[in-house]
């Protein structure tokens, strides 16, 4: 569930610049290094074969890139008619970058209210330009569009449940995938050279390659159909509530969809109390959603950080399976599509459009390294912001106070909507840094953090 909240927050030209964060270095065991350099050989009489497991934004984008690049591509999705539990908010730049048609958008959010524990309300979208907004889509609509496009570029879509993966013995052996085919109701196998795991937070591909675990938040959401007059209130408005009552470490939201609002919350540290937090967000939203009819209740894990291992030999993880959701904002759709495409393009270029076998080193160099250098700083930064501002109600009050600052708003939205660090004004950045510190001191956050350090 993303909001642009403090996305940029003093990152562009301050000493905390994200650009200074070094990407993680891929580490290889020496024996595996030998195996890797032995492959990369030319394939004869056929093209490179790749299977993508999972047809969400990550999987479809990977499949599209590979099919368009000459790879024989299979996309296995267990539930093409399903709807991923999701807020469906995407950054504006995704429309252009992924050529998403405008008629898929349910709502254009131009006003974003952030509401503090003491119910102080700040309109966070004041600096948006007239053509700027946060597109809100239903996931069933977006996902089926992206999957169809992958198919039109040549990917073969298989409706089936991926069950397991037999690992190859040598660098030229295939992977053998087992799945149940929904149409034929039988177990089937498929031999491929490359596997991309895009099967979300409970990834079976990750398990098959022993990728290691990650911490997950649980997100709970109710879709509530409101009477027409109340729905009007949320026409172009999204709300974000912070407070220990609605979540001890995340935030709660009311997001407008086509004919209903999505009301939800999330937490990592108090999962057993999620229903209590949900009752609290409904009560904080109060009269604005009163009289609404709950049409759907859904819950799903949200990864908190990347997995310890994201590539093993010729298997790569992307999207939620890899752990690409930003803390603090809970944004993952764009990062899923982006990582899927990046990984698919890596396979295309390393295999010379399907003519050569790819290697682990290829995937590490062309996908993982590129991904980490572009995004790992953003992820670490938002991790830090969450720790400072979401840990206590004082921190949350400070966050809301800061969000009333027009400069914070402008820089945050620029970074969120366009996924580029907005060019800051050094003087304004310094002023903002002081104001931030002031907010934290007033909220007694700095004193408490110092006390913890001195303990
Ligand atoms: C309640 C909630 C609200 C959210 N709101 C937002 C938001 O507003 N904006 C945002 O950017 N992010 C949001 N997120 C995060 C976002 O939903 C994910 O980051 C994003 O969906 C990741 O895309 P993906 O393609 O990696 O995985 P998924 O979208 O989870 O897709 C995985 C696909 O794999 C398929 N699959 C899984 N296992 C198998 C198998 N064994 N065999 C075959 N297929 C399989 C699934 O059916 C699914 O289609 C939210 C998350 C939650 C839980």
From TrEMBL:
<comment type="function">
    <text>Catalyzes the reduction of geranylgeranyl diphosphate to phytyl diphosphate, providing phytol for both tocopherol and chlorophyll synthesis.</text>
</comment>
<dbReference type="Pfam" id="PF22578">
    <property type="entry name" value="GGR_cat"/>
</dbReference>
<keyword id="KW-0602">Photosynthesis</keyword>
<comment type="pathway">
    <text>Porphyrin-containing compound metabolism; chlorophyll biosynthesis.</text>
</comment>
<dbReference type="InterPro" id="IPR010253">
    <property type="entry name" value="BchP_ChlP_pln/prok"/>
</dbReference>
<feature type="domain" description="Digeranylgeranylglycerophospholipid reductase catalytic">
    <location>
        <begin position="233"/>
        <end position="279"/>
    </location>
</feature>
<dbReference type="GO" id="GO:0015979">
    <property type="term" value="P:photosynthesis"/>
</dbReference>
<comment type="similarity">
    <text>Belongs to the geranylgeranyl reductase family. ChlP subfamily.</text>
</comment>
<dbReference type="GO" id="GO:0045550">
    <property type="term" value="F:geranylgeranyl reductase activity"/>
</dbReference>
<dbReference type="GO" id="GO:0102067">
    <property type="term" value="F:geranylgeranyl diphosphate reductase activity"/>
</dbReference>
<dbReference type="InterPro" id="IPR011777">
    <property type="entry name" value="Geranylgeranyl_Rdtase_fam"/>
</dbReference>
<keyword id="KW-0149">Chlorophyll biosynthesis</keyword>
<dbReference type="InterPro" id="IPR054715">
    <property type="entry name" value="GGR_cat"/>
</dbReference>
<dbReference type="InterPro" id="IPR011774">
    <property type="entry name" value="Geranylgeranyl_Rdtase_pln/cyn"/>
</dbReference>
<keyword id="KW-0521">NADP</keyword>
<dbReference type="GO" id="GO:0015995">
    <property type="term" value="P:chlorophyll biosynthetic process"/>
</dbReference>
<comment type="pathway">
    <text>Cofactor biosynthesis; tocopherol biosynthesis.</text>
</comment>
<dbReference type="InterPro" id="IPR050407">
    <property type="entry name" value="Geranylgeranyl_reductase"/>
</dbReference>
<protein>
    <recommendedName>
        <fullName>Geranylgeranyl diphosphate reductase, chloroplastic</fullName>
        <ecNumber>1.3.1.83</ecNumber>
    </recommendedName>
</protein>
<keyword id="KW-0560">Oxidoreductase</keyword>
<dbReference type="InterPro" id="IPR036188">
    <property type="entry name" value="FAD/NAD-bd_sf"/>
</dbReference>
């Amino acid at each position: 569930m993303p909001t642009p909240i403090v996305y940029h927050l003093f990152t562009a030209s301050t000493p905390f610049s994200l650009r200074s964060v070094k990407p993680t270095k891929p580490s290889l065991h020496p024996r595996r290094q030998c195996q890797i350099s032995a492959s990369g050989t030319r394939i004869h009489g056929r093209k490179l074969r790749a299977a993508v497991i999972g047809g969400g934004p990550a999987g479809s984008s990977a499949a599209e890139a590979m099919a368009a690049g000459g790879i024989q591509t299979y996309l296995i999705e267990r539930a093409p008619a399903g709807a991923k539990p999701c807020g469906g908010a995407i950054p504006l730049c995704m429309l252009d970058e992924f050529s998403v048609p405008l008629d898929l958008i349910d709502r254009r959010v131009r006003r974003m209210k952030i509401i503090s524990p003491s119910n102080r309300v700040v309109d966070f979208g004041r600096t948006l330009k007239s053509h700027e907004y946060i597109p809100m889509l239903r996931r069933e609509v977006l996902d089926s569009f992206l999957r169809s496009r992958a198919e039109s570029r040549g990917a073969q879509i298989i409706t089936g449940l991926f069950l397991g993966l037999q690992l190859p013995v040598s660098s030229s052996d295939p992977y053998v995938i087992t799945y149940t085919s929904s149409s034929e109701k039988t177990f089937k196998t498929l031999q491929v050279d490359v596997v991309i795991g895009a099967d979300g937070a409970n990834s079976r591909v990750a398990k098959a390659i022993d990728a290691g675990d990650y911490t997950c938040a649980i997100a709970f959401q109710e879709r509530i159909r409101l009477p027409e007059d109340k729905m009007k209130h949320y026409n172009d408005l999204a709300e974000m509530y912070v407070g220990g009552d609605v979540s001890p470490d995340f935030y709660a939201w009311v997001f407008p969809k086509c004919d209903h609002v999505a009301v939800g919350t999330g937490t990592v540290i108090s999962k057993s109390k999620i229903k209590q937090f949900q009752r609290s967000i409904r009560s904080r939203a109060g009269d604005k959603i009163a009289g609404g009819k709950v049409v759907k209740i859904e819950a799903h894990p949200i990864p908190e950080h990347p997995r310890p291992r994201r590539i093993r030999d010729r298997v790569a993880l992307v999207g939620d399976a890899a752990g690409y959701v930003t803390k603090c904002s809970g944004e993952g759709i764009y990062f899923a599509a982006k990582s899927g495409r990046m990984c698919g393009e890596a396979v295309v270029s390393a295999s010379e459009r399907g003519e050569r076998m790819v290697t682990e080193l290829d995937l590490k160099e062309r996908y993982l390294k590129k991904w980490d250098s572009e995004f790992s700083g953003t992820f670490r930064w938002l991790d830090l912001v969450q720790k400072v501002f979401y840990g206590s109600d004082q921190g949350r009050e400070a966050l809301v106070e800061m969000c009333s600052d027009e400069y914070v708003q402008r820089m945050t939205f620029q970074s969120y909507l366009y996924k580029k660090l907005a060019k800051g004004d050094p003087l304004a950045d310094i002023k903002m840094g002081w104001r931030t510190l002031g907010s934290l001191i007033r909220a007694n956050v700095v004193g408490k953090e110092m006390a913890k350090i001195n303990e």
